[in-house]
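Quarterly update from the structural biology core.
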Amino acid sequence: TLSDGGNIVVERDIKYPTSGRMKRSIILTAAGGIVPTSAGATKTQVDTATSSYYVLDFSNTATSSVFWQWTIPDSYDGGTIGIIYYWFTTVTSGGVDWCFQTNGVNTSENINADLSSASCAASATAPGTANTLATTTYAALQTSNFTPGEMVTFKVLRATDNSGDTAAANARLTQIKIEYGVATESD
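Predicted structure, tokenized:
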């Protein structure tokens, strides 16, 4: 029977089974990216007749980067975190090598600790049409060092010195989607 006037009332945590867990997302926007003063991507506001938005321009001639921070939610299940890059370029061929580095810091660790070694997605091929949104997925961020409540520093870079990075133009990153599994309903 239902109580509380016909509403379902849960008095404890809702928990999910080990397999087939629910996922949550964190969206890292270009507008929220922190551009370093040295070798940073360029944050650009694009104004069109129908909309305005930010992009992060990553050069095709030198490695450039940007940073974000977020906190690992309390509901995080400790599993693999997926990363989806949303980007476009003005050229119709060639590849872009998107890479990232991370660090999880809890309240007893140095906030300026070293980042992990760079992990790169397979070379992302430019869409066949200029200025067409493309997605590149890196679905294997192993997070054995991340625990709920930790602050994560996340660095994204375009590795122009990798052999797979052959697109002869800037790559414009619009956002990144971070997907993680949850063990319980609440954060």
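The longest strand covers residues 171-181.
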